[in-house]
Every structure is written in structure tokens, then in C-alpha cells.
What does this fold into?
Amino acid sequence: MDEVSNKVNGKGLRRLCDELILAVDRLSAGGLDSPGLDAEVLLAHCLTMSREQLLAARDLPIAPAAARHYETLLARRLQREPVAYITGKREFWSRDFAVTSDVLIPRPDTERLVEVSLLCAAQFPASTPLRIADLCTGSGAVAVTLAGELPSAQIYATDISPAALKIARGNAADHHVAERVQFVTGDLFAALPPRPGVTFDLIVSNPPYVRRDEIFTLAPEVSRWEPRVALDGGIDGLEFYRRIVAVAPDYLAARGALVLEIGADMASAVVALCGRFREIAVHQDYAGKDRVLSARLENI
It folds into this structure.
């Protein structure tokens, strides 16, 4: 046995810090990009602690049952299962969201979609009870966040996956906005009330936009584990943008805005689709990459 494995307390139990050292070595050998962070997050989850609590308790022993549970979590991570699926949650906009393999894991880049949507919402009078549609809602992270930030907003959130919407409804309930977010199953606009009928001040979406033949080149955590239906944007990655941009004008109210997350190399192609829109703007993420497109209707 190595030196760390022999470091035990009087009852023959390893300390948490020694367990972490062994875990980091295993995850590093398995080719993981962030072995230290993964080891800490998984052990904290195993022990129902925060990472801060874990680090403060690092000299305490780990119970045998907890050690066995931790071993199963590490084995899953070594199969390249994302940490968020193992722990069942991911932080987004300083809120914890439940996630499973039925939904795309919310990314920090998508917080830029929320930021731009809030900027567009701020252009309406403060007294306006905004109506918002969130297409391809997945875990509901965007819809729930907008509901939390815009207390008077009413939101329709659509997704083609009933399993995804089950997760999204749970997230809305957890964050106390369920009464203002209506989740409906369907393909993009097909889930919304028929026109003429309800119109929306904002239509937002983080649609699938990975080019089909590029999916297999993504990290295993994405290509093997995340739902393909939430990734596949067709041959050129633009399939959903074409469909959204073509129909959105029928559902937008006066001065209504369309806000889309886009692939980093897709700005010019998506802008070219927006012939009926004006005030078209491309917004960068914090890495300086094109990430969000916003636009308003030309004929307002």
C-alpha cells in the first residue's frame, strides 16, 4: 500500500484529506481535466456537505459506508459521466437547478442569454406585465431565472421532451415561480397558443446548434452523456434558427424582441436569416466570443 493509503486514524479509517489525494490521483490518471475540483465536489456531495465544510473537516475520518459510496461516484466520473449528472444539480445564475441526463447541463455562457433578455425587458415600461416565451427550455434554467428576475412576467416554456419538462417543472417549484411559468410539451411554437391569440414581448431560446457531424468530436461528457436532441442543430447547425426566425414575427407583440443563444462562429449566418428584423445586435460572452443575438421586428 502507498504512503497515503497507510495514513489512518486509530480506528483504521482514512482521513478525508487522504481520500481526496487518492481520488485526485485516480481522476488525473483517467485523463480528467479538473481532477481536484471533481474530487472535492463529489466527496462533498457524498457527505452532504458544502465544499467549504469539506475543507474545514479535511482531517476527520471517512466512514466505511461513505468511502464505498464515494468509490461508486468516482467510478461514474471515470466513465466521463458529467459531475452535474452525478450530483443531480448545477448552479446557474447563483441558483441550484436539478439536472438529469434528460436535459442539457446549463452552461455559464447561457447566463449571457439571460443578461441580454433582461436588457431587452428593461426597454419596456416598468408597469408592463411582460409575456415571455422560452423555446427549448430543457431544465428550465432560463425560464425560471427570468421569472425570478422579473416578478410580474408570465412565461410559456416549451420543449419537445416530456422528460425534460418534468425536470423543469420541479425547478420552477423549487424556486417558487411555478405559478408564473407554464410548461408545455411541443416542438418550438407548436406548443404555444395558436395565432391569432397570445403574443409575446420576448421570445428567447437556447436551441440545439451543434453541427450534426461535429457532435462526436465534442468532449465525452457531452457526446456520450448529454441528450442528442438538445445538441443536434442539423447539418449546418442552423436548422432551429431558420425555424425560429421564420415564425417568431407571428408571435411577437409590438416592440417585441427575439433573443437567441448562438454558436461562436454562427453570428453572420444567423444575422442573415433576420431579414424581417431590425436593431439586430450580436453580444459577446466573457471570453469575447459571439454568444447571443437580439433583434426587433422591422415592421413595428
Notes: DSSP finds eleven helices and nine strands in the chain. The beta strands are 89-92, 95-98, 131-135, 154-159, 181-185, 200-205, 252-261, 277-284, 290-297.
